[in-house]
Specification:
Chain B: GO terms for molecular function: ABC-type transporter activity; ATP binding; ATP hydrolysis activity. The complex is a heterodimer. Helices cover 71% and strands 2% of the residues of chain A. By secondary structure, chain A is an all-alpha fold. Chain A has two domains: 2-47; 80-313, Orthogonal Bundle (MetI-like fold), CATH 1.10.3720.10. Chain A has a two-stranded antiparallel sheet with strand order 1-2. The longest helix of chain A is centred in the N-terminal third of the chain and has 48 residues, at 14-61. Chain B folds into two domains: 3-230, Rossmann fold; 239-354, OB fold (Dihydrolipoamide Acetyltransferase, E2P) (Beta Barrel), CATH 2.40.50. Chain B contains eight helices and 21 strands. Chain B is α+β, with helices and mostly antiparallel strands. In chain B, the strands form four sheets. Chain B has a six-stranded mixed β-sheet with strand order 6-7-8-3-9-10, sandwiched between helices. Chain B has a six-stranded antiparallel β-sheet with strand order 13-12-11-14-20-21. A five-stranded antiparallel β-sheet of chain B has the order 15-19-16-17-18, with no helix packed on it. The chains are: A mainly alpha, B alpha+beta. At the A-B interface, helix 8 and helix 9 of A face strand 6 and helix 2 of B.
């Protein structure tokens, strides 16, 4: 660039200087944008094809009635949304989903924490239990579903056997609308425990022992040590686990499909499963798109709320 | 508050090898007692046994006349300052200092009063609302001290509390700690690997090595009357010279270059170790009658440390006036030795010490 300037030009001249600055910055910008394109290009391409385009298409379809092939046929504006919120079946789905998400998150974190604290104790053979506690991480949804289908089976299942021995009323777990959701919650929590346990246990193990020794000498009891030292120190991890578990719970699909198929009487027909049913079984892509958009908005709002409300209390 | 250790031993369950063997001592009320030794000698383990953080395998621990082996840490009426400070990162300075008091269910006015006093004592009143991460290393150290002070325990255990500080701050904190201890009348048990800390702060020092007590004594006695070669080597910079010597009639012969006349000590061994402090060696420069060759000269300002090789290749460290014009490869003559200690060559135990100038040391000239 500098060569193109006249040899006799005065480099002290402010006009010449500002021209020089412009030339060099635009050259740098051109060079930088090449790198930016090179680095971001591949992921932008992949995200566009598999995330951004489907997102936009879903938003678009949610405003239309669609034909059997999923093509938009009649523009209906927001009436898909309005109709959904008037539909008692959808509202009960929404309620069941919220119940499921809250129960799964709370139970997963409380039980995971209990297991993590238990695994911290210096006991004989504790290593074996640490492995067992984290083992559900390596189990696939289908295997878990089959295992629990057997456990809940009204004639040969473990629960049936126990209630028979104890002379308790017989419960047909997966066929009874009152218990089906509970059964799915139990299975999901069991599936989640391995991961949650491992993360929380790792966080607890990392805490410096001198803090607890100092507390011990000061006469702080074990319970206070846990609530006043351990919990604040692992709060970032706890927050992470909560966000992940919550989002995961909203997205539950596999277990429902394998265990209850949304039944009985829609008791376990959670939002994601309803989307699947409306789109691929009923062929109503417009409605399914609307449901997807609503679910996305719900997850976004709850995650934002979590960061707003809890983020401040987390000690990083 | 006196603390008595009676034949205290520690063996961890996993290993047969003990980490501490039969440690006995009585620590007096108001004493600044330092436990010193190289890494792995068991000094921290001993402190943790006194604190109740590590169980006692054998022996008796008595605190103020009461057997304390099974007493939980909180009931031993002591406080502890950790090397890592052990501050709670999410609490302010004041909360950190008052944390232990809250769980003792003291009234909040009493807690505030104690926290204020303790913070004032370590000059941290202005920083009471800061979090530990906003403090410097020295300030964090003071918070840990304030926490110990606020507990009002009369015994304070310190596990290498100054080792994370830089050299200048450490020197300053040594003096402050010592003053604090005296003003509050604390009984302090202080663990360190630093001989300077031990010497400058202690009323008495316990030297640990190889899982055993080597000597328990005042800093002066440790320096002047070491029980064995290890203790002699541990204290004093530069290190004491330990030279192999042959025992002749009424004299010790080192490398046939240096003859030290013995006045009193009777020795049955034919070979011994002679310990000579570098500052106790006097030299003359010049090749006439020389008995050593200079290997290195380290200039330290007011003095120089010279290492010189005697003719049978034993090396001797000498502290000399830094005005002395001397360089590597110069020939020197060792003309006198002030004090020296004689140690058994096998057991390393002290056989005898000789005080006073032996300037009439007959010195053999060496051919270089």
């Amino acid at each position: 660039m500098l060569e193109s300037l006249p040899q006799n030009s005065n480099l002290q001249d402010p006009d010449v200087q500002s021209a020089l600055v412009q030339i060099t910055t635009s050259a740098r910008w051109r060079k930088d944008s090449l790198y930016v394109t090179l680095f971001l290009g591949p992921s932008l391409l992949l995200l566009s094809v598999f995330v951004f385009w489907p997102m936009i298409k879903t938003l678009y379809l949610s405003l239309f009635l669609t034909d059997n092939l999923g093509h938009a046929s009649v523009f209906v504006g927001l009436s898909n949304y309005v109709n959904l919120f008037k539909d008692p079946a959808y509202l009960s789905s929404l309620g069941a989903t919220l119940l499921y998400v809250i129960a799964v998150s709370v139970l997963t974190i409380v039980l995971g924490m209990l297991l993590a604290v238990a695994a911290q104790q210096h006991l004989q053979g504790i290593r074996f239990f640490r492995t067992i506690f984290s083992s559900t991480m390596g189990i696939s949804v289908s295997v878990a579903a089959i295992f629990w289908l057997f456990a809940f089976n009204p004639s040969v299942g473990v629960f049936a056997q126990i209630s028979q021995v104890l002379h308790l009323p017989e419960i047909n777990w997966l066929a009874d609308p009152h218990f089906a959701l509970l059964a799915v919650i139990i299975t999901t929590v069991w599936m989640n425990l391995g991961f949650t346990f491992l993360i929380l246990f790792g966080a607890l193990q990392q805490l410096p022992s001198s803090l607890f020794e100092a507390a011990k000498i000061a006469g702080v009891n074990k319970t206070t040590q846990f609530f006043k030292i351990s919990l604040p120190l692992i709060s970032p991890t706890l927050f992470f686990v909560l966000v992940v578990t919550l989002i995961d719970a909203f997205k539950s699909f596999g277990l429902i499909d394998l265990m209850t198929v949304g039944g009985p009487n829609n008791a376990t027909n959670l939002l994601v499963y309803r989307v699947y049913q409306d789109a691929f079984l009923n062929g109503n892509y417009g409605l399914a798109s609307t449901e997807s958009v609503i679910l996305t908005v719900i997850i976004a709002i709850i995650t934002l709320l979590q960061f707003k409300l809890l983020g401040k209390r987390v000690n990083y | 508050m006196t603390i008595t250790l009676n034949q205290l031993s520690k063996t961890y369950e996993e290993s047969a090898q003990p980490v501490l063997k039969e440690v006995s001592v009585q620590i007096n009320d108001g004493e600044f007692f330092v436990i010193v030794g190289p890494s792995g000698c068991g000094k921290s383990t001993l402190l943790r046994m006194i604190a109740g953080l590590t169980s006692i395998s054998d022996g008796k621990l008595t605190i103020n006349g009461k057997l304390a082996n099974q007493v939980p840490p909180k009931d031993r009426a002591l406080s502890m300052v950790f090397q890592s400070y052990a501050l709670f990162p999410f609490m302010t300075v004041a909360e950190n200092v008052g944390f232990g008091l809250k769980s003792r269910k003291l009234p909040s006015s009493e807690i505030n009063h104690r926290v204020d006093d303790a913070l004032a004592m370590v000059n941290l009143s202005d920083l009471r609302d800061r979090k530990p991460k906003e403090l410097s290393g020295g300030q964090r150290q003071r918070v840990a001290l304030a926490r110990a002070i606020a507990s009002e325990a009369k015994i304070c255990l310190m596990d290498e509390p100054l080792s994370n500080l830089d050299a200048q701050l450490r020197a300053k904190m040594r003096i402050e700690l010592k003053q604090l201890q005296r003003n509050l009348g604390l009984t302090v048990i202080y663990v360190t690997h630093d001989q300077v800390e031990a010497m400058t702060m202690a009323d008495r020092v316990m030297v640990l090595n190889d899982q055993r007590v080597q000597q328990i004594d005042t800093p002066i006695n440790l320096y002047q009357r070491p029980n064995n070669a290890f203790v002699a080597q541990f204290f004093g910079t530069p290190q004491i010279n330990l030279l192999k010597a042959n025992v002749a009639e009424r004299e010790l012969v080192i490398d046939s270059a240096l003859h030290l006349p013995m006045t009193k000590t009777q020795i049955n061994n034919s070979k011994v170790l002679v310990g000579i402090r570098p500052a106790d060696v006097r030299i003359q420069i010049g090749s006439r009658g020389a008995n050593a060759r200079v290997a290195t000269v380290s200039y330290l300002g007011n003095q120089s440390v010279i290492t010189a090789v005697l003719n049978d290749s034993q090396t001797i460290r000498i502290v000399a006036d830094s005005q002395l014009q001397i360089a590597a490869d110069d020939l020197i003559k060792i003309i006198g030795v002030e004090d020296f200690h004689i140690f058994d060559i096998n057991s390393q135990k002290l056989i005898g010490s000789q005080k006073g100038d032996v300037s009439d040391a007959r010195v053999a000239a060496t051919e270089f």
